[in-house]
Amino acid sequence: MGQNRFIKRYIPAALLLVILSLAVIVLVKKPKLVVQATDPIFPVVEFQGEYKIGEGEWLPVIDKTHISAMKGQVMLKGFFQMRNPETLELLGPVYPETLLAVYLDHIAMSIAINDQIIHESDVENPAYGSVACGQIWEYFAIPDTEEPLVITLTNHHKYGNENAVDNFLDNCFIYAGGIFERQHGEDGEWQRVLGIAIVLSSMIILGTALFAFKLHIKKSSEMAIVGFIILFAGLYYIFSSENICLWNNNYRWNTSILCLCKELYMLFVTVFLLKGLSSKTVKVGNIFVGISLCCISVLFGASIVGICLPYDAWLIWGIVEFAVCVGLLVCLFLEQDNLNKDNALIYSVNIFILLSYMIDFIAVYFGWWENTRLSMMFFIVIFIGASILILKVVPQHMEARERAIKLEAEQKLLEAKLHESRIEVMISQIQPHFLYNSLAVIQELCYEEPKKAEKAIGTLADFLKENMISSMSDKVISFREELNHTKKYLEIEYLRFEEQLSVVYDIQTDQFCIPSLTLQPIVENAVRHGVRKKEEGGTVTISSREQEQYFEVVVEDNGPGFDKNELEIQEGTHIGIKNVRDRLERICHGQLEIHSELGKGTCVVIRIKKEDTVC
């Protein structure tokens, strides 16, 4: 048991912590560009010349000066120069026929000399048929000419790549085939490794959530939502990494997956947020989440069929999600009165997640930074906290579930024992004298009245069978059924005490239900302790009537009666008056009263409220 508990508690935790440790090591110690000993060192390439935006004036290209890609078409005029990579000393223009690699961040490029285009890359233009969208490396050869190159950069988008021209100017390299791809492919490796570690961790969390769901552990749905949040965040880390196009050259799908992962990440964040809302705001929150889901579905479908580019769809989704975040922030603000120690931390985390997205959206729109940098940094904190919390909570719930299973097994064992005890009680309550005397009377009838004996055997068999079935059940039956069962008992008693036993029925209503084996034991008690105590015999009266709020059953006898102060119910009276009272209270909240007077007889009254007599 101790070993199983150790495995269940610590093995998943150890596995997740190993993955986290590797990710943190990679994150802290970011891999630097590794240049093999055989790799040549290439000069640094930069563009020198001037630029203009739209119909504006020509301005000099100055290193690290921002050139907006969102204000119109950008034209560059000049030459590509080389510098010494160590001293940064200017070496002169790039040699003719040298292959250059330039970085295009969702922009089109054309290169011309004297108004004649010598190279063009515009894969995002719908006119080319297959609409593509992404970040790519483009390669071209430097022409053998002394005329300046005129490079035109065209942005097809309205959001997200404000710094596309800056990225172009900062990422000009001499292309050397596999050497270039190997060296630059490592630039975003640390982020991809971190993303893969996060995805693997999400799989562990989702598997744990599924396991918890199978065991009916509380909060398993919340755990699954957190798992999906971490999954899509990890995928976003992978596909937003630097030079992802060298790791996966299907750049259109790179962009589509990147956009979809961010959208689904925020969707599951908002779904998780709903779990903390009260009834007064959760309906409004559901509307906001529904709007977000519809927006994602429509825009992603539109990008897949080519109606719009994934990057352009992101702007529309971003605006809608921004409005959704504002609405959810209002909902959270209205929840301040419901704050306590248990939900205060989650409340604060939800606010920070929404605010970080809103800040990221504004920052990306104005080009302050690329991608969702603030959300990515804040997610790492959430991820570590959520992982620790899950590692702490899940083992506790698993142990609680084990205890619950053990208690359930014990309860089933007790129920089985109770079932056995009922059978024992039922068998013990069948009076040997009653059974012996009944069979003796039937034996005499076999000689004198065979037909009557045959009927008596059938009645006795039916009575014993119904007794056995009823003793196993806690269900209510119709009063008519219980009365018929009692009549079978009285038919058998008639065989023995035909002249001494008289029964009067005053049944005003039988349209109600009572627990089985309720009337018969009381009538049996009246016969044994009332009628049979008198030498001349007596009368048992069975009546039922409907009152305003309850149904009433009365069993009276004119026997000797007894002193209520010395009332002792004998254990041998079929299931017994005490058991009848207990069954009435437990099954239908009924009441049983006993009234007796010495020399006059006994009266037993059963009352059951009308709302508790439904069959």
In brief:
The protein has 615 residues and is an alpha+beta fold.
Defining traits:
17 strands, seven-stranded antiparallel sheet, five-stranded mixed sheet, disordered N terminus, 615 residues, single chain, alpha+beta, 16 helices
Describe it for me?
The protein is built from 16 helices and 17 strands. It has 615 residues and is α+β, with helices and mostly antiparallel strands. Strand 1 (44-53) and strand 2 form a beta hairpin. It has helices at residues 2-28, 164-170, 178-185, 189-214, 220-239, 244-247, 251-274, 279-304, 310-334, 344-366, 373-429, 432-448, 450-471, 479-497, 519-529, 577-588; strands spanning 44-53, 59-60, 74-83, 90-93, 99-105, 107-113, 116-121, 135-141, 149-155, 172-174, 476-478, 501-507, 513-515, 538-546, 550-557, 591-597, 601-609. The longest helix is centred in the middle third of the chain and has 57 residues, at 373-429.
Secondary structure: elements and pairs:
Elements: H1 2-28, E1 44-53, E2 59-60, E3 74-83, E4 90-93, E5 99-105, E6 107-113, E7 116-121, E8 135-141, E9 149-155, H2 164-170, E10 172-174, H3 178-185, H4 189-214, H5 220-239, H6 244-247, H7 251-274, H8 279-304, H9 310-334, H10 344-366, H11 373-429, H12 432-448, H13 450-471, E11 476-478, H14 479-497, E12 501-507, E13 513-515, H15 519-529, E14 538-546, E15 550-557, H16 577-588, E16 591-597, E17 601-609
Parallel strand pairs: 12-14
Antiparallel strand pairs: 1-2, 1-3, 3-4, 3-9, 5-8, 5-10, 6-7, 6-9, 11-13, 14-15, 15-17, 16-17
Helix pairs in contact: 1-4, 1-11, 4-5, 4-11, 5-7, 5-11, 7-8, 7-9, 8-9, 9-10, 10-11, 12-13, 12-14, 13-14, 14-15
